[in-house]
Amino acid sequence: MNQTKVPAMLKPLLCVAFLLLAQQALAQQSAPSDPAVTSSPTTSPTDLTDHYVGDLGLGAIRMDQNVLGKKATVSPLPYIYGDYGRFFGRLDTFGVKTLQMGDGYLEFSTRINFDGHDASNGLQRRNDAIPLGIGTYQETPFGAFFLNGFYDVGSSHGSFFEAIYAVELDAGALAVYPQIGAVRQSASYNNYFYGVTSAESAASGYRAYSGSASTNTILALSAEYSITPTWVANITLRRTWLGRGITNSPIVNRNIENLGFVTLSYRFK
What we know:
By secondary structure, the chain is mostly beta strands. Helices cover 14% and strands 47% of the residues.
């Protein structure tokens, strides 16, 4: 297993986390101390807050590098999962809530992406995607639904769509969140990241390959333990079964990808 430094795309997240912490500290200092004039806590998933509500912390993430025979990497990770008015952060997805829709909002968002890989063995460099998209997070009495569609404004000019369902199971200080979902990636997206051109084939020895669309299946499990009312530990394990549009590529190691992360965070209310 390779140990790596903080990825360049994670550094802006550290800045966001520190800014949110500073803003929250200032808000707490200026908040009225009299309970009679303190606003009551929000209870609806569609309520918008005037301060940051959620988790901020640090952790480590382990990701498979599933191309060109590379191994998994472990990297430090700033952890942001919460809301500040219409703005939200959900680990790797950041955006703004617009029109209220059902038990949530229509959202515009972007995502930190790690599909890119450096030039190697005669293949050209693939840049990380720059996804911009729309979606919604629906927090219903029957569980939470994440529905998103993204277009890569970067190099691939491809798209991907995801639908994920999660449910919360509580047992005292422990909360468990089983998740199931699917991601549909377009042919353009897969061809950019996993295709092999004729020129690359001649230089690398890999057979030429033109990527096609794929549907990837996701199963995940998160466990969250409240150490104190304000400090929370989290561990998440996720496995993705890749579709044939990816696994048929000669540069892909195997048909599954694993991801895991552990975090320790402070919960703002």
